[in-house]
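Narrative of activities, Objective 1.

The group set out to show that a structural description can be obtained from nothing but a protein's sequence at a throughput compatible with the screening campaign. Below is one input-output pair from the validation batch, recorded exactly as produced.
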Amino acid sequence: MQQAMPVISIHNVTKTYQMGRVLVKALQGVNLTVDRGEMLAVMGPSGSGKSTMMNIIGCLDVPTGGRYLLEGEDVREMNDNELAGIRQGKIGFVFQTYNLLARASALANVEMPLMYGNGRNRRARALEALDRVGLAHRAKHMPTELSGGEQQRVGIARALVKEPSILLADEPTGNLDTRSSDEIMSVIQGLNRNDGLTIVLVTHETDIAQHTNRIVSFRDGLVVDDAPVAQPLLAGQHA
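Output recorded for this entry:
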């Protein structure tokens, strides 16, 4: 039986930035594969290269060297329009700071990615995305009327509204208390286990990483550890 192609396949990827007269080697030959439906955490200290790697995975940046194959297609061979199409369709982004429009309702915030291009059934699709994160009943509320955890769930719904196959979450619990963090991880685990989304999550928190199935650790622009989580924590078990 033929083995399925990895959704993300990174081969000896390097990334070098020119900072004045200095060359900064952010990535120094990274190898990484992610299978469809996996949920993994990316960890590492500041300056380790994990954010650069996430930008490349998300097609926000391209490698200096090496190959990045996204569903079998070489990202370095794509033009700007093709990269934008990947970001708009295949990949959803969740950020630590939510990035919600303060004067727009939860529903309007989730609708935003559908404002350009084909906006058919925009409101229905946004309501469905809010329902997936358990917030359909808060659709008309403004961000200031929502807790931090609820705001982050709106951010996740906004990432889901275009039905991506990959979710990239950058410190999604970084601004939240323990209970809200658990609620967010419960949502993310559900998207992975029930909906089959491939999820790559950056975190500094070991306990958050333990909710995933695999932890990839970066240091000095390299992967220094890549190991499965023996018994992933199940979110939503708080008292």
